[in-house]
Recover the amino acids of this structure.
């Protein structure tokens, strides 16, 4: 096995792809992301079909505040950059810097979740509850599902950090860091479509 | 002598790989940032007609996603044929679903 070819304490150039198992994990994870794309696609198509059915509730235009959405977007975009810095530190075998960037990513993820909770509470206060209308149900399902993915990503990256602290940076732990970073980017990619389709298009529709 | 040379070669091997710099990631970040700001500005301005704004918004989102996948998800790196097949299978289903849903509702 190629994992044992390397001298103890000396990592190959791309430690996340050093073993066949690691390469299979990465490929399998991409296929999972293909399925995730379909999952979010169904929620997006439901939202697009139902977004004008507001019933007695507030419309998207009355509800959404762009400065808040812009702040959330900036936080998530920056966290995507910090997670790619973590992967870069991984490639340069700099464990300390990698862990530092992963922690920054988690902190930004928590800030995003905090902002989203504040936003949802504000909407509920405005009379935009889950069962208010077809628009509100599809909105909370889509955006809430994304928020749940962010929360899951935070827990996941925290566990990966714990494992790296315990076992060190090896050809076993490196693919885990890499895959969690890919997942985090995917969350950001989904958010690009959410802020475009849900918030910005909601503002245009009036 | 010969073993000594080998030892030196294996020690130097990792150094031959060029150290990955942050430049290309920062370029990706700045491009994403610019596309995001254009999208928000197009809506905040509110002067442009709705159809044209929709076209701007969707184009900005698609470009930004392609940039992020290429730079940050390493899809432009070699050995990513199957990931691309996997993701595009997903994207194909999504486009079909979205078009179908909109067709049901609007026409």
């Amino acid at each position: 096995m190629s994992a044992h070819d390397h001298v103890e304490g000396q990592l190959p150039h791309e430690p996340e792809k050093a073993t066949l198992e690691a390469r299979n994990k990465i490929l399998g994870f991409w296929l999972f992301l293909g399925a995730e794309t379909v999952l979010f696609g169904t929620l997006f198509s439901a939202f697009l079909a139902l977004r004008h059915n507001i019933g007695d509730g507030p419309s998207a235009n009355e509800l959404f505040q762009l400065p808040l959405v812009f702040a959330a977007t900036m936080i998530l975009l920056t966290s995507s950059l910090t997670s790619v810095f973590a992967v870069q530190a991984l490639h340069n075998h700099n464990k300390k810097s990698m862990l530092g960037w992963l922690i920054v990513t988690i902190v930004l993820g928590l800030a995003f979740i905090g902002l989203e909770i504040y936003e949802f509470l504000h909407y509920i206060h405005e009379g935009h509850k889950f069962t208010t209308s077809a628009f509100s149900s599809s909105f909370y399902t889509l955006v809430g599902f994304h928020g749940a993915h962010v929360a899951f990503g935070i827990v996941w990256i925290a566990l990966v950090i714990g494992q790296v602290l315990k076992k060190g940076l090896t050809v076993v732990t490196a693919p885990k860091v890499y895959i969690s970073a890919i997942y985090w980017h995917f969350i950001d990619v989904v958010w690009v479509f959410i802020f475009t389709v849900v918030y910005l298009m909601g503002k245009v529709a009036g | 002598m010969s073993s000594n040379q080998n030892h030196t070669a294996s020690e130097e091997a990792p150094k031959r790989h060029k150290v990955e710099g942050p430049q290309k990631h920062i370029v990706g970040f700045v491009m994403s940032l610019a596309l995001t700001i254009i999208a928000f500005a197009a809506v905040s301005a509110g002067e442009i007609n709705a159809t044209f704004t929709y076209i701007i918004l969707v184009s900005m989102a698609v470009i930004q996603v392609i940039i992020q996948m290429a730079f940050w998800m390493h899809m432009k790196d070699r050995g990513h044929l199957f990931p691309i097949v996997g993701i595009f299978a997903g994207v194909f289903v999504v486009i079909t679903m979205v078009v179908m849903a909109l067709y049901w509702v609007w026409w």
